Amino acid sequence: MEMIHPSDDTLLIRLAGNWEIGNPLPRADSVEKDLTGQTRQVGFDTASVTGWDSGLLTFLINIIRLCDSRKIEVSPEGLPQGVQRLLTLAFAVPERKGARRETVRPPWLARIGMSAESGFRATREMIDFIGESVLALLKMAVGKARFRRSDLMWIIQECGPQALPIVTLISVLVGLILAFVGAVQLRMFGAELYVADLVGLGMAREMGAMMAAVIMAGRTGAAYAAQLGTMQVNEEIDALRTLGISPMEFLVLPRMIALALMMPLLCIYADLMGIIGGAIVGVGMLDISPVAYYHQTQGAVALNHFVVGLIKSGVFGVLVALSGCLRGMQCGRSASAVGVAATSAVVTGIVAIIVSDALLTILFTIIDL
User: How many Å apart are CA 54 and CA 216, to the nearest integer?
Assistant: First the structure.
């Protein structure tokens, strides 16, 4: 960009090169220092411009507004014909006052207050949701909850049998990893056989339930949030309320029941697959006979270890279902809000799984289970 003064009262702005977004374009402020008090007209020379898009238009609009504020005439004759037509359209309708969004950063104390208010509101909504869920469960216990049994069976199939392939893959790989990690240290003491103890206890008490829950949070919890969020966008949930049907009973309750029932079964399956993964390493790489590996696992993993895993999996299932349904019911009215709700459901579910697992582990240690 070059500034030329053909006369004392005229400024000619000569533009050259590519004026498309992505290239380093000058700001309109760089012209301001050449607008002297004697300048009465601004013109353009764009003969050397090789390309342009909205980047050039934005620059020119800012120049025109700057000249208008100083009562300087702008001559568009030197601009390309397409640019002249777009500028005519841009200034054909005057900008409505107040339509421009102005971002004002509030003071830090106000931001802390808004964050605290948002946290309290989210906590209150979560408590309300849990309370409504408990009421729906109580209604179901006395046979007054209204939901379709066919929906419940469909959801059970979706979050149970259809999740077996991914649970199989992840659980076998977790068992393999546990066996590899244990074998590196146990081999130093000639105790490779205890890999079976490590894998069996790890899968039965912790990893089987946790990995199944994490899979369900990413797969089923996100699906719950997306399904309910889409129904919120399409105003289907409003229609249910209009018909006098409680969304908590009709939509949330079947999903909670399905996941609470399927999670313990998936946990048992994940335990078995993880132990098989550890056996693949023990038998295939550590030269442990299959019979010895089986008896070592049988001796190390007692029934109470499986009970611990089953209790955790049931809790994880309820938390994942609550997280998915809560975020789905809180979803906004736009398509982008559905994606936000699904992402938030996964994050909320995984955080809830980790926190509850820590608390349950401490509890089981105290009661010596």
Answer: 46
Please report where in the chains the tokens 């790890």 appear, as a residue: 202
Pair type for strands 10-19 and 2-7? antiparallel
**Considering all CA atoms of the chain, what is the largest pairwise distance in Å, rounded to the nearest integer?**
101
Distance between CA 153 and CA 151 in Å, rounded? Answer: 5
Nearest to 275 by CA among 285, 262, 290: 290
Chunked in runs of 10, what are the mean pLDDT values of the chain (369 residues)?
83 86 81 80 86 86 85 85 86 70 80 92 90 91 88 91 93 93 86 90 92 92 92 90 90 91 93 94 89 92 92 93 91 88 93 94 90
User: How far apart are the C-alpha atoms of 88 and 366, rounded to whole Å?
Assistant: 78
321, two tokens: 């279902």
Separation in Å, CA 107 to CA 104, 112, 114, 115, 123: 9, 9, 11, 12, 24
Whole-model pTM: value is 0.72
Q: How many CA atoms lie within 13 A of 186 on its CB side?
A: 17
Phi-psi region of 332 (alpha: psi -120 to 50; beta: other; left: phi over 0): beta
CA atoms of 203 and 185, how far apart (whole Å): 19
Measuring CA to CA, how many Å separate 317 from each of 66, 181, 211, 261? 62, 29, 12, 8
DSSP string across 200-266: HHHIIIIIHHHHHHHHHIIIIIHHHHHHHHHHHHTTHHHHHHHTT--HIIIIIHHHHHHHHHHHHHH
